[in-house]
Amino acid sequence: MLKIPFLNLYLQYRAIKKEIDSAIQKVIEDSAFSGGKYVAKFEKQFAKYIGIKYAVGVNSGTSALHLALVALGIGKGDEVIMPGNTFIATVWAVSYVGAKPVFVDCNPDTWQIDETRVKGQISNKVKAIIGVHLFGQPFDIEKVLRICRKHKLYLIEDCAQAHGAIYKGIKVGSYGDLACFSFYPGKNLGAYGEAGAVLTNNARYAERMSRLRNHSSVKKYQHNEIGFNMRMDGIQAAVLSIKLKYLDKWNRRRKEIANIYRTKIINPLIKMQYQPSGSESAYHLFVVTSKNRDKFIKFLKKNGIEALIHYPIPCHLQQAYQDLGYKRGDLPVTEEFAENCVSLPIYPELEKQAINKICQVVNRYEG
Ligand SMILES: Cc1ncc(COP(=O)(O)O)c(C=O)c1O
């Protein structure tokens, strides 16, 4: 039986092994391990790719979000609005700066932040909205930006899953005051370890974040504010510079696979993420919902297909956030989604035979 893993990063490495091996070798020979010229080179390349002036490379997507909130001066007594339907790291960053996360429900079709629910949460404590391009699909940036402008709130884009996704003709990451990316290995643009970046058109933020991530060094051993060690590794930057050249090609392949799923999966028990016109998902994940989700996953597994859940417990119901006082029923759409969601394999190296098998098996599921 053809076994289909959820992800196989080795296949990607095999295709670019020569380039990657020699790039890593070069960093080692230059001893450019922490920060340095390879990081500066990747920052320039990635900023250009997204169409933004500055990129500040850091050691993870979580650090990118943390640093973004510090740069905006958000802290104790402040509140930050975000969707309850996201990966937990979006929320951690708000907690790290001592601010309070305020969750809003998601839209039942796009599974993205429901902007109609944002208005009810706005108070003078709210300083920012973090919008998440979940699964690679842009949220409705224009609508959220309108709210931000009206109420003088910052917009932070969490682009951890959306490298190369497009909203109204422009890449996501160029709309917010700041945009945060993760280069965790399994992402569309993934490092060979941990890495992230914050992007902005604002020179002041960029300059401050560059300092803050490097122990707030004004010059060697002079520190004018409390800083962090959030530097990006040279090896990660060198790997990312190589992989960036292939990102559009890989994203095109993800889109092709997604289009096959969208046309060939015709099981009425399976619902897909609605894609509004004018937006192009980067298809980091291909998520569907199904009644009897656990049974569906077992059925896929029995047929050799590995499927995962992103994410089984919504942020507002996590034990870590029980002090915030949310309870089941507060974000009903997010909760229903968490109970029914299933992620099917999607990665550029997935072969035709595997894609066809996934469609056939999903269509055979009877609930
Ligand atoms: C939506 C979202 N935000 C933030 C992060 C955090 O990124 P990292 O794992 O690089 O810290 C991730 C990564 O999984 C993510 O998916």
From TrEMBL:
- Which residues catalyse the reaction? K187 (proton acceptor)
Q: Which InterPro entries match?
A: DegT/StrS_aminotransferase, PyrdxlP-dep_Trfase, PyrdxlP-dep_Trfase_major, PyrdxlP-dep_Trfase_small
Report keywords, A-Z: Pyridoxal phosphate
> Taxonomically, which superkingdom?
Bacteria
Extract the GO molecular function terms from the UniProt entry.
pyridoxal phosphate binding; transaminase activity
- Whether Lipid metabolism counts among this entry's keywords is no
Q: Does the keyword Magnesium apply?
A: no
Example of a GO biological process term: polysaccharide biosynthetic process
The PTM N6-(pyridoxal phosphate)lysine maps to K187
Q: Which residues form the signal peptide?
A: none
Homology family: Belongs to the DegT/DnrJ/EryC1 family.
Q: What is this protein called?
A: Erythromycin biosynthesis sensory transduction protein eryC1
